[in-house]
Design brief:
With about 110 residues, the protein is mainly α. About 45% of the residues lie in helices and about 0% in strands. The two termini are about 20 Å apart.
Length: about 110
């Protein structure tokens, strides 16, 4: 474990833009059959436990936001535009958690 600050920084490499040519076909950069780019590391971990933890946390946070917006309505106050917006925001946070849990694209696999 450690923070981002404690890890060494990689030097940033800038690539010069290719010069414009007047031909219709651009020059081939890589050899045929060679992979175009190296395998990219996913930005977030897609392990089963990470998805369960983050998905259930988002569902809980969305439920909390929604119920806190509903609290004045239960006391008899009419809902205003801010209250309705807060309820919609809470529902959308919870839906985001459901999407993370359900993994609709099937990119994550259970390992273990």
């Amino acid at each position: 474990m450690g923070s981002f600050v404690s890890q060494p920084l990689d030097p940033v490499k800038f690539v010069a833009p290719p010069e414009a040519t007047s031909t219709a076909k651009p020059a081939q950069v890589t050899a045929p059959g060679a992979p175009a780019s190296p395998a990219q590391v996913p930005l977030f971990n897609n392990c089963w436990s990470c998805r369960v933890l983050s998905g259930s946390g988002l569902i809980g946070a969305g439920g909390y936001v929604y119920w806190m917006a509903r609290k004045p309505m239960k006391l008899g106050y009419p809902p205003g535009p801010g209250t309705i917006a807060q309820m919609i925001f809470g529902i959308s946070i919870a839906c985001w958690g459901v999407v993370i849990l359900s993994d609709p694209k099937g990119k994550a696999f259970r390992t273990g």
